[in-house]
Structures
1.
Amino acid sequence: MSQAISLKETAELLLASDNFVIICHASPDGDTLGGAFALCGALQKLQKRAKVRVPEEVSERFNYLKSGIEEQEFSEEFIITVDVADAALLGSLQDKYPVPDLCIDHHVSNTGYTKNLLLDSEAAAACEIVFELIKLLGSGIISSEIASCLYTGISTDTGCFRFSNTTAASHRITAELMEYGFDCAGLNYLLFEMRTKQRIELEKKALESAEFYFSGRCAMITLTGEMLKAADDEDINAISSMPRQIDGVEVGVTFKQKEEGVWKVSIRTKNYMNAQVICAKFGGGGHQRAAGCRITGDMQDCKTKILTEIERHI
Amino acid sequence: MSQAISLKETAELLLASDNFVIICHASPDGDTLGGAFALCGALQKLQKRAKVRVPEEVSERFNYLKSGIEEQEFSEEFIITVDVADAALLGSLQDKYPVPDLCIDHHVSNTGYTKNLLLDSEAAAACEIVFELIKLLGSGIISSEIASCLYTGISTDTGCFRFSNTTAASHRITAELMEYGFDCAGLNYLLFEMRTKQRIELEKKALESAEFYFSGRCAMITLTGEMLKAADDEDINAISSMPRQIDGVEVGVTFKQKEEGVWKVSIRTKNYMNAQVICAKFGGGGHQRAAGCRITGDMQDCKTKILTEIERHI
């Protein structure tokens, strides 16, 4: 089990160390990347050596996060993970870094796989914690680049301040970050508005496939393997949230064809239904409002099975 | 011309008066409504009499704004407009209230049609100004209902903190508002996520109609009168912003059929093109990034005319 440490203890630990490797989780998102690059920039500003490692390829959309970072060669000493709840999420880097020195995280489910753990499960994003930490490392460290990294994490993890994890602190920190003068509106376009032509095409097909059940309380969309060919994870994820957005819909279901006769099903619920309970019936899992499972067989049979289970709870 | 007054002077004026009518602008949005109902609630809390008047029907989506308000009968004395830049925007109420006592606004274009004017053109929303004003009226006035009204104005006018008008102050005020404990995530769903089935249907048809020009730098969608029958203003407005959201698109054009041979054209640009200049060519107007015009004739001819003008600037 990790040793739980405070912000102040973490700052002291970092100030006393050097030659940092900061690791992101697999399927890297704005929070793990933004937090890692912000911390890397801050440590470099303190004349320490630091680099970021990511177990998977990073979407080009996030290239700007590296803009304040200097590439440095050094012998690695102090290993930090950011926003990584479980060692398994280190993916291809897990073997090389079995017990990192420190994890900075906001997941209540953190498994305590590092020597030290700075955890704040009230924080909407790991970047909120990294922000408070950098402030303790010294004054004058935060640049507009670091601010834009931290903003990236907070805004993406809160769905641009829309999700229920958004707190007064999220807004208060964002206000402070904006004072550093990065191009916030440009970043918002990049992160939340821009849609590729492939995405538009997929949305069109998804909407065409929409079916409604139980007097409109259940909406289902179907994405065949053919439709999914050109789509990336981010697009598919965004599209899976579409059925639930429809007025009157309590449960949104997305059928995604993985291969002939194999379907990945995403279930998103709105107010009262437990998506996890439904998916657990088919060996899947997740959270109360968002869960998933795999199901095999003829499409119509699979849909009937899922709908029968939904009917028991709706 | 209006007398420009400060926040403090405005607070003194309100504290010295009673029997308020607070008026919203026509085509009422979250900011004019949120600001008016917040101020009404605050004045009632001060044991004054106040009511809100709106020149047009209010979308049911905004019903919750009235939840803290008591219906009161009284003889009207002090007339306030909120977020109303021009007397013409009072619509059907303009004749009854030719020179209101006070306008609270954030539009730099305010025409000064009221006796007194509290203007802050740096504010992202009129609700930011109303918030500061209510704080000066006394302590303990802001309830969770008032906070949710003010949040509505700030979040809608900033596109949920995405638009370039969002400032550090917008976030700082929002942080303060969240401390009053309203259901922020529920409100965000209502304001930004919920889409009616009609809207989904219209989006689908809009996407099907998409055409691309100038190597993908111009995207055009066409909404026929038939498609627009069941749609409301809010939906059409949201859909007009879709073409510009596509990756690589600098100018998004939406053709909306008003009647046979009559088209309303919305032009939204991203980075460098001036939408207003293009629309001015056809007798229209607007802003640099969003403008509109009316054009008559055969659909294909109309499109060619617009595209020819766009080609000169793209």
Note: Chain A touches chain B through 40 residues (CB under 8 Å).
2.
Amino acid sequence: MRIVLDAMGGDHAPHEPVKGAVRAAKMYGSNVVLVGDEAQIRAELKQYDTRGLNLMVVHAPEQIEMDEHPAQAIRRKSRSSHVIGLKLVQEGVADAFVSAGHSGASMAGALFILGRLPQIERPALATILPSLHDRPMLLLDVGANTDCKPEYLAQFAQMGSIYAERTLGIPTPRIGLLANGEESTKGNRLVQEAHLLLRESNLNFIGNAEPKDLLVNDVCDVVVCDGFVGNLVLKMGEATVSLAAKRGALELRRSFLPRLLLGVAPIAALALQPGPGRWRTLIGAAVGGTGMAGIMLYPLWRLRRVTDYRVYGGAPLLGVKGVVIIAHGRSDAVAVASAIRRAQEAVEVQIVTTISEAVSAGAVTT
Amino acid sequence: MRIVLDAMGGDHAPHEPVKGAVRAAKMYGSNVVLVGDEAQIRAELKQYDTRGLNLMVVHAPEQIEMDEHPAQAIRRKSRSSHVIGLKLVQEGVADAFVSAGHSGASMAGALFILGRLPQIERPALATILPSLHDRPMLLLDVGANTDCKPEYLAQFAQMGSIYAERTLGIPTPRIGLLANGEESTKGNRLVQEAHLLLRESNLNFIGNAEPKDLLVNDVCDVVVCDGFVGNLVLKMGEATVSLAAKRGALELRRSFLPRLLLGVAPIAALALQPGPGRWRTLIGAAVGGTGMAGIMLYPLWRLRRVTDYRVYGGAPLLGVKGVVIIAHGRSDAVAVASAIRRAQEAVEVQIVTTISEAVSAGAVTT
């Protein structure tokens, strides 16, 4: 099995993608084809001991920049890492394509070069969300289709159900429909019509799911929505975490010094008092303070880890003729390696064939 | 000026609404008409010293329950606190209606009983969001209209601009359009078309706004979206805060005891060592630990206060012939009192007449 990695994609390319490829080759035994500027990739590779690792380099002289129009860039830049990488998958030379670069270009490229699966109306981008319980929660579509028909959402549910079952190991996944209330009368017209389709399907449909059902309650495994709403909801979650972190840091900065002085004053008064063993006050204060800081910081550190996008790897684009994993633009080597592993898992369980067969069998008619 | 308060609305009615009315009468000199079950309201009022306060009770024998269909309930329950309260405003006996009860019924009732302002296509529910900088950020629509046309969004922008200018004191408010990217090509069809309308309007339109622009960046004062998306985004913010709080508490519980023992061990070892002044170790540790806990907990407490929905009072329903403030169902007395104050401010600046005149002047043609 060969995984194509867009070595030029992401905010820290080619350094982090190349490092991630080395990491995946070492940790998961991955066979990675690095596509991009050969000289740059080889210069990066020299920093690591790559003996015995399955790493190949394929030269691509062009790159798609973040401000380019996705479809136009794919058409014009036939020698870009996106186009050359996806063609390797299309020709059967490789089995999956992973990129942390221009996500619109990855989706457009997947559509033009690999093509849609027969009977799939629209491919969908799926992502795993952090949740209170430690089970993965799959949300799709998070950005491939800004305007959807009810039938698309029903197909997203079907693809998501298969993906959750096969790669996340969830038997008969519980499917929710993202809405602003549990009642079937809630939601906009699209959601109300999709609700009826899903209720008639043979999926394990549990009804409408609210944002708290995505993150806090353990009521569903897969939640579907249109790509505009999914992308906004995802970004709102990120923005809220960012607000809390920044605001917390601001408050800490504002209050740290006066409070530190408040704490230091009694300790100093105590330590300066004459009498034997006054150093004990200081040691006691240092140990007590450090211990308490550890007790309070550890859960915050764990919280950061739990909401860390890196451990979830990339987002699979479901419904195209090939495995395509879109990683976060900010991906570091750890994130790139876990996106490569996600691609391997999807290839192993033959996700493309499975989705194609299930949809052909007509679980949801459109 | 008289403010009608639905004394039967909210999770803690009539206790908290009545307490909130007393608080508003004392703190803001409000003149409040409590509508609901007279016996229950009077029993609650007896708990407070209400001499000299402007509090009136109007009996309403029916209530609208949370699971009722909004429009049907308004039509059927003509003796409910919603209908009787809104009629007091419609007849000019009172100037504003405040409710923490069934929000759908409040909106439907406002439409049926007060009616839309001429030339307003759809009223919109506006809410103030917490943000990193301490300036208020107005988001609308957050739930009145699940399916919108581009013209509605343009009118929401106009109403929001006037509200922000008049009641929040922001001169020529910066208007954003909620989308999943800054570029004007981002967003679904509705957003793209609304973008063109807003660009042609005489509003201070700054372009598309992403969720991070709502919460973290100080780039706009008013952001518009359809009510389905607005409601979801709001709920996603709440769910993320809830996830972080619950997860943080879980991690703290998991790690507190083992870490406390880790901290206690060296202190105990030190304190048990023979020698003079060993009590100093303990006092030092206690002071140091408490000081550090204070330093770390204070910003978290401040964070909670900043994201507290209560201080922002209720959400105004803009575009109807009267001032209507919809408070959170979980409102306590503090939240109810600040919703009453918000209603007073809106009446004082004659928000209804101002919106009506501005829209008639044709800032946005539909």
Note: Chain A touches chain B through 85 residues (CB under 8 Å).
3.
Amino acid sequence: MINVAILGLGTVGSGVAEVIEKNQNQIKKALGDSLHVKYILDIRDIPGAVKDINVIVNDPDIKVVCETMGGKEPAYTYTHLALEHGISVCTSNKELVDAFGVELSAIAREHNCSYLFEASVGGGIPIIRPLRESCGHENIIRIAGILNGTCNYILTNMKSGKNFDDALREAQEKGFAERNPAADIEGHDTARKIAILASLVSGKKISYEQVSCEGITNITPEDFAYAESRGMSIKLLGVYDSSGPYVNVAPYLVPNDSPLYGVNDVFNGIMITGNQVDNLMFYGRGAGKLPTASAVVSDVIECAKSIGHNIKNDFADLNLADNLVPAPAIPERQKFRVLGE
Amino acid sequence: MINVAILGLGTVGSGVAEVIEKNQNQIKKALGDSLHVKYILDIRDIPGAVKDINVIVNDPDIKVVCETMGGKEPAYTYTHLALEHGISVCTSNKELVDAFGVELSAIAREHNCSYLFEASVGGGIPIIRPLRESCGHENIIRIAGILNGTCNYILTNMKSGKNFDDALREAQEKGFAERNPAADIEGHDTARKIAILASLVSGKKISYEQVSCEGITNITPEDFAYAESRGMSIKLLGVYDSSGPYVNVAPYLVPNDSPLYGVNDVFNGIMITGNQVDNLMFYGRGAGKLPTASAVVSDVIECAKSIGHNIKNDFADLNLADNLVPAPAIPERQKFRVLGE
């Protein structure tokens, strides 16, 4: 039995507990052992939960911690502490991975444990691990991803004629957008995610602050009518292109023969172009309790198979990118770039 | 330096040599070592090629063999021999995996080497490994895959009004269909691939012969007009459904809100439905020299990282499925089943 702890019993954290409970039989088959949630840490008063991280990191039974708190603190301090104790950490926290992923990965390596973050990009979609393993030998030329389900839901609704404000309101009513939706609709969430993916494939750490970022607030129903007249749709994409290299977030016109064209509603789709394999796309639920938790659990199983060993995550040795160039300018008399042009 | 041998210098085999040569730098990064093609075996007179498998399996330098011959013999005998010598085998040969994958996987385990077959399904698309690793803890409810590029090319062309014979002829002229296209258009190729995927997730070996199989030869332009009037398209799908369980290959009506709807031309798309992660889709080139070779090379790298150890491929312990039921009947007054109904 492998004992784990969950830090933060919010949406994703409670999902992790649920996936571990409900899929125990499958987990045993995949891992050759069972997973047991020994501790839940939460700052709120939750029956059975602990509030002191030291209880967890000083328990030699604990081999893996799931950091599902979000935000920088106390997630950073707790992750640091766990890794220093040789406890692997699996996280869905893109903000932390972007800001401190390189440092935390180096600490993990030093202490023969692992820092994995599959759930930080694309929710339940397996993307980080396939990039690292199945595509590790590919020269990745481009990544173009629909990485924010809130924006994609709003844009899918605008395609059928709604204006931005109405589409946003509907997304908020259905729980797909926050009351303060800025991080989503201004593209910052997408920027964090494409920065993580671009760092993985470019060999340099690209940070969120280096990503030029335009959101979806200026898109009009007329823009959609224009796109449709050209057989295209409008999607908010995070793009990495090795030819600059550049990384940007912006609304793009997506032709209807692109696999990203049909990625609608809250779904995400990440297109990877390798020099040998050509275009791949990975599609699935980019957010939500159980899909995101499933990605965390896949990392937990990988860590549990490698106790006492560091799993190379390609982040530990990265230097900050100093070679980025701006994305190509939007062509004259066009409001948006066209994907692939 | 890790020495490998390529068995069969056809389309995929020569692609493997090319990927290893052209992506050597990326391979070094991914593997921490370089790959070197020490032998090529081919029955034809090719300068530098060997014809005797014993030269390869008796060379202690050889750690991994790529079996890209296709067909049952001599691929079976050569694979058997390599594995008995503790040499891992990576293959694109779906016929062999379907017929002898269980036996060969058990031999690999016994001799502390590995038998991997990422390239046998979906060409360049990472699907076997993500299923085994990223989704190993999921309870897979359904797989629905567009697994044959030839059929998908023909159907994409029929969608724009061509009849079957003209669409087939065009596919043959462009090199996307064989002169004898039976294995593709009658669904047998798709059946082999869905049998492999279904075996991986069901815990039983499902063989090609157990898959009820209907091809695309009876589809008419009128069928496409009807599909379009319902907002759907027609795709040849290989389907595994855990609720029977059943496995079948048949033309399906695919609604336009399914991610499979937009998988066109020679591309493949494989939708996986897990009980926690919900729908995932993996998309890419399902055939072709370099994409398929890239998948073989990803297996070679995995084997090269695990020399002396068996990589569990979930095939070694499977018993033949004895619990399959027929797929649900086609509803009255319909010619095809509808995906998801």
Note: Chain B touches chain A through 53 residues (CB under 8 Å).
4.
Amino acid sequence: MAEQSAASGPLPPGSTIGILGGGQLGRMISVAASRLGLQCHIFEPDAEPPAGQVAAAVTTAPYDDVDAVRAFAAAVDVVTFEFENVPASTLDLIEDQVAIHPTRRALAVSQDRLDEKAYISSLGIPVADHAEVSSRSDLAAAVSSTGGPGIVKTRRFGYDGKGQVRIGSAPTDGEIDEAWAELKGAPAIFEAMVPFTQEISVIVARSAAGEVVCFDPGVNVHRHGILHTTTVNGSLPPETVTAAIDIATRIVDALSYVGVMGVELFDTDSGLLVNEIAPRVHNSGHWTTEACVVDQFQQHVRAIAGWPLGDGSRHSDAVMTNLIGDEIDAWPHLAAEPGVGVHLYGKGASRPGRKMGHVTQISLRH
Amino acid sequence: MAEQSAASGPLPPGSTIGILGGGQLGRMISVAASRLGLQCHIFEPDAEPPAGQVAAAVTTAPYDDVDAVRAFAAAVDVVTFEFENVPASTLDLIEDQVAIHPTRRALAVSQDRLDEKAYISSLGIPVADHAEVSSRSDLAAAVSSTGGPGIVKTRRFGYDGKGQVRIGSAPTDGEIDEAWAELKGAPAIFEAMVPFTQEISVIVARSAAGEVVCFDPGVNVHRHGILHTTTVNGSLPPETVTAAIDIATRIVDALSYVGVMGVELFDTDSGLLVNEIAPRVHNSGHWTTEACVVDQFQQHVRAIAGWPLGDGSRHSDAVMTNLIGDEIDAWPHLAAEPGVGVHLYGKGASRPGRKMGHVTQISLRH
């Protein structure tokens, strides 16, 4: 632990950032921190986390191991997370000893899809039509009131399309039964399908001093509920870019947020609405590593360490493509492509749906 | 250690690269390796090496610790170095177990300034006028035959201006005495001062398959014998760029070199001549991290791991400035500069002349 605390100014080089979660996001945060002379300590229940290969220290312990959590908090100068579902009791323990960024409030809001929509609506920002679903009859009522089609999702612990069931426009009672059964009684939310023309995301950073910097919005394409590509090539009309950045800025300002946030938006004929927010570095911001002098990972580190934000302007156009499951087997060919940055996450086994790496193709900026 | 050996194809993701030396070059190689899903194991005599903060494993032992060297070699899939002065006996031990890249031949040539000049001359590439200095009378003869001024340098173990004494154009006997005394009897070389207009360097990579890729040549400015800035902004005439790349390519081809090499050149009215070569990633190539999709560190990893070389084309102009000694104290201001990538090396104490970090300013390509 370095001498100076976050409260009294920027964490000086030599300070240690604690990261809850040791996956690819933690790995890329740790690499970014090293550029600034900072080091990282990973806390991760699973053995041999990908982030541990590039971190100064790793604690392998369950999140409810009180002694391990306390020792971790004592060894670091600030804590962040790459994974939203860390138990509240773990965060309570840590917060007794050291600051957590982004703050608990942002995490709480984003952990519950219903609370998140309520919060964003309260800021005057549009979200999809939706309804709380606590019973089968709630679900049936929600479908008939919004007119379907839509998606019923668990309020908590969902990611990459997990905990989600699509419902068609005129579902039978049997289909409602089936969807309800699949939720296994978890509190849920029904979201009416949004007739969007494209999905956009904004990676926004806010510093402790309240400075806000957005990376250029990207256009996302999903496959099987998982991000497939993000494209940033000047194709968005300026008014859409301005509106997207305005929404992202209002959200982080309202939360007095510190760190990087991913804001996913639907672009519709009647304007933008927020799909969801992620209080962390985001898959749709991976392109920034190749196309900006300061990427989303370094921007996040700068924010949580009390540094000034960096220059996130885009020097090149970019298309980021995820490598899911055995798509990683193409690495020898991908590595030979001109203009391509290859990122492999150091995960042992590829499983269907598992994010194994990504590639970013850059080209002259339009 | 991964299943596949370097001989049978590219090292697959999950393989381990052993790095001899744990300074900032090893640190940046380790970060680059992580992008490709490879991990690094650092061997370094000093405790808490900067590279150890971003490596999967660190061995802290002297280079003559036979057991430690053998265990290190057994734990990795290929070995490279960030430091040229590893004892030959250590390399012998390692080579019994696992391949070293670049090879011993390149290292041997570059470790001795006299051998290096002889080798490069043998390829028909110009070098500075020079003479072997094994005695005081050799030194006096060299000065009078080349007509001075010049620099007398120890043949081995010199870097960043260490082991070098400048000699003026008409030195007194006392000045010759003093210079000779400063060498402390070490075998030396006298190099006549070259009337150069600028110093250029080329970072060249050669793969195991014989593919050669050069980054754009940069213009270097030194201060107190240490690199101060490298600028790559299209200012060099095309014929100089072509000649520089041709020289670098001939050297790596002649050596059947595998890895990245730094080739320092003097630009004179009668053309280019080679100042020195470094069989490793090089300070004058640090700008590539911000200005190319694949930087010199990743290019080196790709070469030694048997991968195809990446795209080293420059998407932006760049000026790299070293942070020496207490220049690092400016980090809070440097971090706030637009278009600037900041790199701090995680070294504890700043000492005069110690490389503590660097910054690279990028701008639109000319």
Note: Residues 59 and 101 of chain B are 19 Å apart (CA to CA).
